[in-house]
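Hello Y.,

Per our agreement to keep a running log of every chain we model this quarter, I'm adding this entry. I've kept the format consistent with earlier entries: sequence first, then predicted structure.
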Amino acid sequence: MTVKSLQDEDKLPIKQVINAINKTMDDVLRVVDAMDLGRTEVKADGVYRTFNSGETVKISSGSFTKKRVSERKIKLF
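Predicted structure for the entry above:
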């Protein structure tokens, strides 16, 4: 099913939305890996970027403790 208007977007099955996001994310990660831009990871003490060579660089320091999300509704666009 293709969404043609804003009124139709709620009719799209959630499984189809998740599959589309996963496919797009796989394409993005493939390009990031090919360009060796590194993957970003948030840990409790800061933000790190890990490159294909295994090198890890700390980008930002801070306290990034896990937060609980109170609302489960997600707006995609």
